[in-house]
């Protein structure tokens, strides 16, 4: 009498489902620790210093768009953008030239 592979597959699938259920339902190992780690002295001193500071009136003012960026040109109108376009065009041109002028026969044992 020969066993079918369906019964074997069902047993493996059931075991995997059981293991997955246990892995998801188990609490993490660090969940049992109720103690928080003490803050470092430097962090506490920094927090205390920041709590005493008051923001200036300038912090709440909104700057206009012209004041934030004096050069409102797009990237491709700036010298770096023009250089990028030229290099991309040169690369595409060279690729097309290479494809059209690469007519040497392939000499490999497979071909």
Task: Explain what this protein looks like in three dimensions.
The protein is 54% helix and 0% strand. The chain contains 4 helices and no strands. The longest helix is centred in the C-terminal third of the chain and has 23 residues, at 79-101. The mean pLDDT is 78.
Key structural traits:
111 residues; mainly alpha; 4 helices; flat
Percentage of residues in helical conformation:
40-55%
Quick check: average pLDDT? 78
The assigned structural class equals mainly alpha
Number of helices, counting only DSSP H or I runs of 4 residues or more: 4
Ordered list of secondary-structure elements with their pairings:
Blueprint: H1 5-25, H2 41-52, H3 65-68, H4 79-101
Summarize, please:
The protein is mostly helical and 111 residues long. The chain contains 4 helices and no strands.
């Amino acid at each position: 009498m020969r066993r079918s592979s369906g019964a074997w597959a069902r047993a493996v699938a059931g075991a995997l489902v059981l293991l997955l259920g246990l892995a998801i339902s188990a609490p993490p190992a660090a969940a049992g620790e109720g103690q928080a780690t003490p803050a470092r002295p430097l962090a506490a001193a920094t927090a205390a210093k920041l709590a005493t500071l008051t923001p200036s009136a300038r912090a709440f003012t909104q700057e206009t768009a012209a004041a934030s960026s004096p050069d409102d040109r797009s990237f491709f109108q700036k010298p770096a953008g023009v250089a990028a376009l030229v290099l991309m065009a040169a690369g595409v041109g060279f690729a097309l030239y290479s494809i059209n002028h690469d007519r040497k026969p392939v000499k490999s044992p497979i071909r």
